[in-house]
Amino acid sequence: MAVCQELRIENEYVPRIATPFAGGMARSGEVCGAVTGSLMAIGIRHGRDNLGQPGDQAIRLSSQMMRAFRDDMGTLLCRELTGHNLSTPEGLAAFRKSEVRKTICLRAVGFAYETTLKLLLA
Question: Which residues are CB-contacts of 83 (< 8 A; sequence separation ≥ 6)?
Fold first, then answer.
């Protein structure tokens, strides 16, 4: 959402589409939602309009984003970043009581935002 705002891309569906990304895709602990959101922003800017078009630019930039995120954060996976199993009530409660959102999630979102903008504006 923040990347779209920065690039003046307006679409009422962007925040709605991204809602299930929390917790690594519906709290499954998979790929961090910040990474997924970054790939969406790259796709909005460089994605193909139909299946017959090449998507090389979007794929190249997405690969660079994922590599940079992994190098900086150590992993792409939410469960490894947070140290919590968000798919269980106990894990979600422990996560909510912890400082992980401030110490890890905000850092991940900030890194993803800055890196995506650099890639899109280069």
Answer: 100
Extents of the domains making up the chain: 2-121
Residue 55, both tokens? 């998507």
**Dihedrals φ, ψ of 102, to 5°?**
-75, -40
Answer yes or no: pTM beyond 0.85.
yes
The predicted-structure confidence for 78-117, as pLDDT tens digits, reads as follows 999 999 999 999 999 999 999 999 999 999 999 999 999 9
Can you tell me the mean pLDDT for 53-70? Answer: 95
d(CA 37, CA 14): 9
State CA 67 to chain mean position distance.
Answer: 13
pLDDT for residue 92? 94
One-letter amino acid identity for 9?
I
Name 44's Cβ contacts closer than 8 Å, sequence gap at least 6.
4, 9, 11
Instruction: Tell me 105's DSSP state.
Output: I
38 CB-near residues (< 8 Å, 6+ apart) = 3, 62, 65, 69, 112, 113, 115, 116
